[in-house]
User: Fold this.
Amino acid sequence: MRALLLVAVLPLAASAQDDAGAEVEEVVVEAPEDEANQGYSPDESQAQDPIRFTGYLDVGFAKATGNGSSFRSNDDRVPLDYGNDAFAPAVNSRGEVASTDSTGRFTNGFLPRSVGIGSTPSLLLNTLSADVRVQPRNVPVFLFARLQLMPRLLPTGDVTRVELQQAFGRLSPFKAHEFAVFLGRFDSVFGIEYLENEANLRLGITPSLTARYTTGHGLGAKAFYRLQVASLWSAFSVNVAGTTNGTRIEALVPVSTSLTGAVVGSARLGYELNLQKVQVKLGVSGLYGPRNDVRVGTARQLAIAGDLRVNAFGFSLAGEVLRLIDERGAGALKVTGTTQAELASGFQVMGGWARLGYTLPFTSPAFTGATLYVRYDRRHGQFEGFTELQTDRLTGGVRVDLFEVLALKAEVLLNRELAGAPLVDNDVFTSSAVFTW
Assistant:
């Protein structure tokens, strides 16, 4: 029934992943469901082929209204990005937007990546992703690396990037227990939206308005444990991680190194009920540690979240709520013999999203799935000393899967400024063709 939530979330998705927090690797990377449920026990295909190469190609087409950004031409507030949601006009699964062009007005770096198309309709080569998986024979160690290429347009968009998005080793020491330890760069363990980070796994196209805080990749260590209680048709799971940067996306904070020398801790506790035709999954997440966008002081970040997923009779319901607080960061930083002030505004946000989907009840060898869905996002954010910004978004879309290797998606985003920002025309139509191998 999990396919009801992720339509054609392709054969790479194993059912043990969902509550794992640490389990995007179980979804994207790991072995079949029976292995994930029994702990380490390599199957015959792994024993014969210890190295596998997989990946996907995401080709899109998008058209944004207005000028493609969330910035109104006569808005002269400073900094401009503190009073507008620059992340709203997203065009792809990476959360990149049509434009962040401020026409020379000052911004303070609270910005997403941009594909630089403005309001011009355009084809997009969103992502070329290549994975390598190494499962040595007869040892409980698994290695994974994901390299991604994002060609981008200059001078109005971001530069073309080659990114080592994930690179980690996993140790599963117990054959009879579903326990694993990861070391390297990996997906977040916070909430559930990270499970759809990649375009081939995402039901729709664009991330939610709160995904920027929860779906980043962390550098550090994490552990996952899952206990199944067959008599109750239930399972309990726990994920814990210690990383250099927390769970925010790399556009907002450094990922590859620690600025503070301290660890950000995050965790998720999960419960799942797995009946024959109904599945219910609940989770609560928490995060605490130093901010990784300042190098001095004792500013902390704190976040809590709750999530829910229900699959029943072709319908899927998923949602998440989030509360996050950044303390104000200020201190003296010694640079080559001189002392400089380093400031970071206090920030807090509350928001969430809910999505309802329905999977059509018929398939064929060529037509392997189709889902209609609608999602509602809401975000209340405020920088210390600035007006609170309230925005929401209604997203509707469809996904059709063909031959189990091609997903065709189309999506409409209707963005609104509810309070704290001038109304701006920043709606988006976007589409995507994702080829998976």
Observations:
- DSSP finds four helices and 18 strands in the chain.
- The chain has one domain: 2-436.
- The first strand starts at residue 51 and ends at 64.
